[in-house]
Every structure is written in C-alpha cells, then in structure tokens.
Amino acid sequence: MKASLYTVLILALGITSCAIYQKTSVVPPLEIPGAKHVKMRMCAPCHRERVESFESTTHARIAVKGMEKEGLGCGMCHGPGSLHMENEYEPNLIINPRKNPDICFRCHLDKKAEFRLQYHHPVLEGRVACADCHDSHGSESRSWTLTSFSDTSQVCFKCHPEQRGPFVFEHDAMREGCTICHKVHGSVNDKLLIARDSNLCLRCHFQTQLDSSRFLVGDSNHTTRMPRGSCFSAACHTTVHGSNFDDHLRY
Amino acid sequence: MGGDIAKSRDDEKFSEDWQFKDDSFIGGLEHLELRYPFKEGWLLKSEIKTLPGQRDHDLTLEVSKKDLFYARIHYKKFQRYYDDSGGVYKNFATPFLVIPEEPGSDRENLLLELGLTLPDLPIFTFSYERKLRDGEISSLTWGEAEEGGVDRHIVPTIKDVDDNINIIKIGAEYKHDIVNIEVEQRWEFTDLETVRTEKNFDEGLPNTNDAKVIDEKDTFYESSQTTVKLNKTINKKLSLTGGYRYIKIDNDSETILRTLNSSGAINPGGFRKNWFDADSDSDVNSHLWNFNVLAKPIKDLTVQGFLRLKNIHRDSVSTFSNDTSPPFDNSADERHDITARTNNTTFGEGIRVAYKRIPRIAPYFEAEWQQGDIEIKEKESLSGFFQRDTDRDYDKQTYTIGLGFYPFKKFSGSVQYRKVVKKNEYDDDLDTESPTGIDPGGYSAFIDKQDFDTDIYTTRLTAHPINSITTTFRYEYRAQEIDSKMDGLSRELAHVDMQTFSGSVTITPFSNLFITSMVMHQNLRVKTRARNDQAAPTRAFEGDSTTFVNTAIFALNEKTEFSVDYQASLTGNYDENNINDLGLPLEHDYTIQTLTLGVRHKIRKNTTLWSKYSLYDYDESHIADIDDYTEHLLAFGGEIRFR
C-alpha cells in the first residue's frame, strides 16, 4: 500500500515536471499576489490598539527592528498588507490566522504535524482556531500564565466545563494545569494524554515500596490493579479531575 | 461541493480520524464570504458554510454603522465522532465491543452580540452565548471480557453527555484623557448531565442483561463575574494598567449510583455502591487584583512589570446515603455528611525585558515568581471516616531567555530556553485516616514534598538560500523531572522527556510549480520507578511518531491547475507498551495515509470548477486489523467571485 502511494506521488510529480515550460504562475498558499510588506505604522490608522500594544506581545520578541519590510512586523502573521490597505473590503488581500492556521504553522511546524496525529484538537478540520486558545495580540499568547486575568487551564474549560469544578474533593494535579497530563495539540494517545498507562499517575503517586510482594499506593495494595489499565479508565478513579463525593476520586 | 465515498472496514474509526461521516452526503456550501458596504458608513459582512448531510454549519452575519453600532450573529454546529473501541484498545481477535452504535456528539454554539459605538461616549456591548453538547463519548471502563481463555478487565464503553451552557455579558469601555476604563459583567448558567455505565460480562459476551454499574451526574453551575480594568498612558515612556475581578460561583450537583444485577435489580453489599440522595453544594468567592507597568526608559528597551494577587475561598458540603441491604428505600444504612473548605492565596510577580537596539538581533529575558498557600480542611461526619487539615505551600519560578535574529537577508531564526521550577510542601496537621497502620498510611497528602523541574529548549531557523527555496527547521526538547517524597519514605524520581524535530522545504523552481514538504519526528518517554518493582508489572511508556505533509501545485496554463497532496503519520514502539495480553491493552502502532489528487479549471474570469480524488488508508498493528480502513472520496465543486 505504502509503495503504491509513493509510486503515484512520484508519477504525479513527474507529469507536472514535464510540463513546466508553460509561462503561467501558481499562487502558493499564504501568498497574496502583488502585495508587499508594509511598516507597522501603516496599519495604525485602522488598527491603532493592535499596533500600540504590539511591543508587549509575545510575537514582538522575535520581531527584529528595521525588518518590518522583510515581514517581521504585522506581516509575520497577516502576510504582506499593501493591497489590503488599498481595498479594505476585499476579503482575500490579508491573511486572518483565525481562518487559516497555516500561517501559524510556517513557524510552528511541529504543531501542524501534531494536529495530524490520531488524537488532536480539530484545528485542521476548521472547528477550532489557534486563536481560540492563544491570544496572539495579548501580552502573553499563553493567556493562562500568572500575570493574566485568566487562571491556569481557564482556556480549556471554555469547551470542557465538566472538568472545571469546583469540586468537593479536588485533584492537586489540576492546579499544575491540564498540560501536566495532556499533550494538548495532538497525541498518539486517546484523550490527548501524555501516557496511556499507570505511568501517567505514578509520576506523582509512586512511593518507595518496602514489601516486594505487593505494590502500595498510600496504604492500599494495587498489585492486581496495575496491569488493568490506567488508574482512571479501568473504572476505579473515574472522577480523576475531581469528585463531589469520594475523596479517592472514584465516583 | 459534492462527493461520494466508497468504503471498506471500520467506518467509525474513519469518522473519528477525519471527523466526517463516510456514509452520508457531504455536499453543500463550503465557503461563502460577503463584504458589502451597501451605504455610506454601513457594512454588511457574512460568512457561511453549510454541509447539511454532515450536520456541519458555520454562519456569521454582521451589520455595522460607523460611529453608531454593530450587531453580530454567529451560529456553529458540528458533530464530533468517536471510534467504537474506547480509544486505542487492543481488542481480541473477535471484535468485543460494548458500544452499540457509532458514538458521537452534536456541538452547537450560538452567539448574539450587540455593540453601541457612539463617538465620544463609552462603547457598550451586550452578548448572549449558548453552547450545547449532546451525544455519546467513547471511553474505557471496568468490565470483564473473555476469549479463548484470555480474560481482560477493561472494555470499551460510552458516556452519555448533555451539556447546556448559557452566558450573558454586558460591558462598557470608556476612553478618557485621564484614564481608560473597561467594565464587564458576566453571568453563566450551566447544566451538565452525564451517564456512565460499567458493565460486567459474566458470560464473556455483551448482553443487555449484564450486571452493571450506572453512574448518573447532573451538575448545575452558576457564576457571576465582575471585571474592572484601568489603563493610563502617562507619557510615551510609561503606561500603567490595573484591574480587579470578582467571581462568585454556586455549583450544585446530584448523583445517582446504582449497582444492578443481571435481572436489573439492585445488587447490594461488598464494594458495590448504591447511593441515594447524593447531593453536593460548593460555593466559591474569588478576588483577583493585577497591576502591570510598561516602561521604555531608553530607546528600544522595553521593560514590563507584573504583580498579581488572588484569593479563592471555597466552602463545600455533600451528602449521600449508601444502602447496603434491602429494601433499598433510602433507609440509610450509611449516611455520609462531608464538609470541605479551601482557602487559596497566590501572589505573583513578573518582569520582562526586550532590547532592540542591537542591529539584527532582538534579545529578551523574562522571569516570573509565584508564591502560594492553600489551606484544605476536609471532614466526614460518619464514624470511622476521615478528618484532615492540610497546609500546602508552593513556590514557582519561571525563567525564559531568548533571541530573535536576522543576521542577513536570507536567514532568520530564534532560540529560547525556559526553566520552570515548582516546589510543593504539604504539612498535614491532622489526618485521621490510617486504618491499616501501613506506613505511610492514610490519604490524601501522603505526599510530603514534591518538586517539578522543567527545561524547555526551542530553536527555529529559516533560510532562503535562493529566492525559489525556503527552508525552516525547528527543534524542541522538553524534559521534566518530578521529585516526590512521601512521609517517612525515600525520594522517588519520575521523568518525562520529549524531543521534536521538524523541518520543511518549499520550492518554486518555476513560476508554475510549487512544492512544499514537511516532516516531524517526535519521541516521547514517561518513566517512573514502578518499572523496577516486581509487584507492579509496568514499564516506561514510550514511543515515536513521524508525520509527513507533502504538497505540489502545478499550473498547466492560466486556466488549469493540478495538485497532489500526500500526508502520512506513523508511530513506532507504542505497541511495546502492552505488557502482555492480560494487562494494559491500550496501545498499538499505526500508519495513517492520505493521497489527494486535484484539478482546478477556470471557466470564466470569476468562475473556477474543481475536482479531487482522495484516498484514506489506516493500518494498525492490531492482531485482527479490525480498526483498519481504506476509503475513497471523489468530490466536485465550484468557486465564484463577485465584485
């Protein structure tokens, strides 16, 4: 199967290569024909707040002074803006990363590939945008850091309220943030987990074993339970995010 | 857009991977965008996507009048599909599934927003948002399944979900010479219902009469959130922002927990749970203050300072009766009354410095510190149960140093190193739960100290050696060490290591040919000391994944364009995470591939027709290949532009 796919690919590329004498042009994705990068101050008349706050944003870190015309200003994420300035109502003359995450993937290559893993947030399917979680115009694109109004993981709870609580019995791991257990862009493991077995929980809950005949967590013998799945999927600690009734997060 | 699909084998797996149904018509309107300045100062904007057969809709309509108002409606609906194997689950050779039909959930969001934008007056906004989720999510649960003498204690299942979220927001923003003020009031009313079933297959095959545990939860969440932000620009070198947020939450829940035998009657005794009148109530009051400074003391030097103080106080009660013997009429063999209280205070400080005076180089440095204190008191009134007082202190430090550079026109890049250290200490003033006398004993904070130490290295390099070639390389290494110490026991270390290499090459050798290729390789390993313990037959959890994305576009002439796209994602070594057939049947290796061939033909200046053929192929290392699929999609569509 794999070999046949490669054959088709090579054949297709071969056909295209044979016909390259034609003097026509492809418009590559993320390019706006005829447009040039502009200085950031040119964007200010209509987008004053964005321009004024740019220096406090995450992406401003890598914007090198004097290189705006090389695309290291607003054009980093929105493409060359000269034609957009001339006709603001024409929709295809500026790139909107909310609608087209490919502009983000130009630098964040690994994220594009992670969204291709078996379990992923549906960004490439167009149902979630990078901007739903990241505030690229904010002082911190990771809007869940200590300096923002939002708390850790608040951005996740917008779509996952079941895990938000408040619970009578809280799981301390929730205070570390969702990313302590979840690989949030995409994962080989279901539920976007970092690991899909008890190693995930034993990172924090493994304790020195004093008796080789049994495996203790706290004072409870887990010897026969360890091979039966992850601690929560085997219907033991099912309320792993927090419980209202059971202090061991079982129901 | 129109299409047709031929299919083979696992339809549910295909839908989960690609998030559309292969046995439904997938035609419709893929994208309509309108921007119409129909009158001086007036603008009508609309975007529409509607694929009725897939129940996939995304509609936006906005009308605005400059210096007067804007009104926006956004409606989005789509399906989320799941496989019927509970996620990756290494089944028996014969499909052994509890899930009766293709699981999936409907997601629906509606947003209505109105803003008044009168000049020289505050901007007022009002919005109403409604989010719904209804359907089934695939999962794994406790259950017994048997085939050929092999017995497993974990099986696929589904969880029914029915979420209903309503959010109302009103806001005002006033820009004044003295200070800019933003005020927002937000209310949320949420009702979440879930039903989870654990089944026990006594006879080895799923049956409607199997013994089972039913766990139903209904949660009512109400919150009121008030936010005030102030912003003052002193001069070109100094601006200040500050804010306050108050949140009040009332979270009530009801739970029904029943253990039923094969005849549907309550099955009491032992570990079996039969809860009646299970209710909980949590009240939260949260106050947050923050203060930020943005200063430019000298040219091209930006300094930001941050202060943040937050206090969260929570009071919770929950009650339930556990009936352990007939007549199961809530005659309360065990009546549980629980109280819990937390008081969580955190203080954060941060500083960021960026300097852009050096030609072609942009260095930056950031540091954040956080100190926290959490007092936890939990008490169960029933005799013999727990009472705990825990004082948890923590200290977190984050340091980031990085550099953006552009040494010459053909080359740019960035490097960054981030270190995060978090130290947690648990002081258990009181813990009555230690019934067995085993050291360390008791719950919950048998953890005495726990430190998280994380290092993240990131590099990105982009080069344009010649105009027709662009290459980008990115590398990230993330290493985390978790150092835990239980009361009276030794320190234990756990490690999480992840390396990600990714690179892309884009070539336009001729004006009518565009080729781009990308590859990512990722290695992930989670290692705990449990692998050294004979009584805990586990091992380090690790695996590799590699993903390719390749696209070529070729313009035959001004009217006709061909495209080829090949994507593949394959994993390695994940299969090794299964110890044996008896345990941890949770992982396998797989290869997903897609090949798409497309042609676009412009029949008029503003009209383009297109056609594409896609091949989807999935192959996994499962012994019976029951999740594999090969699917074909043939699609036709058109694009019209109006001016």
Give the helices and strands, then pairings.
The complex is a heterodimer of chains A (251) and B (643).
Chain A: H1 2-18, H2 48-53, H3 75-78, H4 82-86, H5 102-105, H6 109-114, E1 119-120, H7 130-133, H8 154-157, E2 169-170, H9 173-176, E3 186-187, H10 199-205, E4 216-217, E5 220-221, E6 242-243
Antiparallel strand pairs in A: 1-3, 2-6, 4-5
Chain B: E1 2-6, H1 11-18, E2 29-39, E3 42-51, E4 56-65, E5 69-81, E6 104-116, E7 123-147, E8 150-174, E9 180-200, E10 211-235, E11 238-260, E12 275-295, E13 301-322, E14 334-355, E15 361-380, E16 387-408, E17 411-431, E18 447-463, E19 469-486, E20 491-510, E21 513-527, E22 541-555, E23 560-572, E24 590-604, E25 607-620, E26 629-640
Antiparallel strand pairs in B: 1-26, 2-3, 3-4, 4-5, 5-6, 6-7, 7-8, 8-9, 9-10, 10-11, 11-12, 12-13, 13-14, 14-15, 15-16, 16-17, 17-18, 18-19, 19-20, 20-21, 21-22, 22-23, 23-24, 24-25, 25-26
